[in-house]
């Protein structure tokens, strides 16, 4: 019998994928790229990536490794050289004494650290508390693994920090972890040690893991300082720390980072990595070892100074627009512009900016209910792009 092809219905996909929204940030960046391919002059403030490429010394180390035959699988936990460089970085910059043998795993960027750690700790139906607004991939990732995301608002009137009573009210007997991010995407908040202690108290009293996304930890501005929650008293046993080079060394395409966590968590993550992906690419780990092993060189420190200047420029320009209020982020490189006074919704304004002036920004509502009335704008584009973007924003927001 010839096969009928016109009436074939492929087998159903998993329900997990039906439940998952697209990543709003990736969708808008893709839309901007499509417009660009059609010949439009798009200014893209949507994706969280800087104008700069990865500094050349890091690239050279990776390409030398590749040319010298470092092209084979590594240990699932990552190369010892990479883990040792990470341990040096944690000691030098974060006051952490980590054992590279048992407490560090190489990951594909920060997201892979998040997936492996969630898979290591979640049983079906377990709840994870997370920030609203927060990074767009957290809730879908928790859901993919059978967990339940429980957003707790970061209220603008509380300077985008959790209120301890609201955090406590969200705890149930199914709560397994608190997931948070500092410096924060999208609001730019950097938690002081005292603010972290709110989370520490709740985690310790309720025996919860704290998954701490610290991907922006090397870029904090002015007098603000980053503190790792794992260094707060008694917190090492509860903390799963995610870090990487995607943002701070402009290495988004490399897909490299690491997780620092108690040894039993790392052991579970290694088993998962063995089966799911084998290891992070070998020569990539060598480039990353270069980036972490030594004190950041001027190629990185000058870039960060430059980013601070651009964040200051962009946020003050945004703040001067009628109906818009935008302060300098404490860390990270996003402007979190409060547009509630304009009377327009964040989706409507973002859409109008893209359609009328080909400026791509992310509507705050993409990050959660509490993000409604805000826009997220990446401030670390080139000066030329920033100036062009500001000119166009002024035409739309009058
Ligand atoms: N966490 C946060 C808060 C982010 O903003 C991003 C990137 N946008 C990631 C994780 C993803 O990091 P990576 O690309 O290293 O997986």
In short:
The chain is α/β, with parallel strands linked by helices and 398 residues long. It is 40% helix and 14% strand.
Please state the overall shape, judged from the principal axes of the Cα atoms: globular
| Distance between the first and last residues' Cα | 68 Å
CATH class of the largest domain: Alpha Beta
> How would you sum up the major sheet?
7 strands, mixed
Taken as a percent bin, the fraction of beta residues is: 5-15%
Q: Which ligands occur here?
A: 4'-deoxy-4'-aminopyridoxal-5'-phosphate
Radius of gyration: 21 Å
Average of pLDDT: 95
CATH topology of the largest domain: Aspartate Aminotransferase, domain 2
Low-confidence runs: none
Number of domains: 2
List the helices and strands and how they pair.
Blueprint: H1 15-19, H2 24-37, E1 43-44, H3 56-67, H4 80-94, E2 104-107, H5 109-121, E3 127-132, H6 138-144, E4 148-153, H7 164-169, E5 175-181, H8 193-206, E6 209-213, E7 239-244, E8 257-260, H9 263-276, H10 282-293, H11 298-319, E9 334-338, H12 346-357, E10 359-360, E11 362-363, E12 374-378, H13 383-396
Parallel strand pairs: 1-10, 3-4, 3-5, 5-6, 6-7
Antiparallel strand pairs: 2-8, 7-8, 9-12, 11-12
Helix pairs in contact: 3-10, 4-10, 5-9, 11-13, 12-13
Bound molecules: 4'-deoxy-4'-aminopyridoxal-5'-phosphate.
């Amino acid at each position: 019998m010839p096969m009928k092809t016109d009436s074939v219905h492929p087998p159903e996909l998993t329900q997990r994928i039906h439940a998952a929204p697209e990543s709003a940030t990736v969708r808008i960046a893709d839309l901007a790229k499509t417009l660009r391919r059609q010949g439009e002059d798009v200014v893209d403030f949507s994706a969280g990536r800087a104008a700069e490429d990865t500094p050349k010394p890091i690239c050279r180390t990776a390409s030398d490794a590749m040319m010298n035959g470092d092209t084979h699988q590594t240990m699932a936990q990552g190369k010892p050289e990479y883990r040792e460089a990470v341990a040096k970085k944690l000691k030098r910059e974060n006051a952490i004494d980590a054992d590279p043998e048992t407490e560090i795993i190489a990951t594909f960027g920060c997201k892979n650290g998040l997936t492996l750690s969630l898979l290591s700790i979640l049983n079906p139906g377990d709840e994870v508390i997370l920030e609203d607004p927060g990074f767009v991939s957290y809730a879908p990732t928790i859901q993919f693994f059978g967990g339940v995301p429980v957003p707790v608002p970061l209220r603008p009137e509380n300077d985008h920090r959790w209120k301890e009573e609201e955090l406590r009210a969200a705890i149930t007997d199914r709560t397994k972890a608190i997931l948070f991010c500092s410096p924060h995407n999208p609001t730019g908040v950097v938690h002081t040690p005292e603010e972290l202690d709110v989370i520490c108290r709740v985690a310790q009293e309720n025996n919860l893991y704290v998954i701490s996304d610290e991907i922006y930890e090397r870029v904090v501005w002015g007098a603000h300082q980053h503190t790792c929650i794992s260094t707060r008293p008694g917190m090492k046993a509860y903390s799963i720390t995610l870090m990487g080079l995607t943002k701070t060394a402009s290495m988004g395409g490399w897909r490299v980072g690491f997780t620092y966590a108690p040894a039993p968590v790392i052991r579970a993550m290694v088993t998962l990595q063995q089966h799911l992906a084998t290891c992070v690419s070998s020569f990539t780990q060598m480039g990353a070892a270069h980036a972490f092993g030594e004190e950041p060189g001027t190629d990185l420190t000058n870039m960060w100074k430059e980013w601070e200047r651009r964040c200051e420029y962009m946020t003050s320009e945004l703040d001067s627009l009628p109906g818009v209020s935008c302060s300098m982020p404490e860390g990270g490189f996003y402007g979190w512009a409060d547009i509630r006074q304009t009377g327009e919704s964040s989706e409507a304004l973002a859409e109008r900016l893209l359609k009328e002036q080909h400026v791509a920004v992310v509507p705050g509502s993409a990050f959660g209910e509490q993000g409604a009335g805000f826009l997220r704008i990446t401030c670390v584009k080139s000066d030329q792009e920033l100036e062009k973007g500001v000119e166009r924003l002024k035409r739309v927001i009058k």
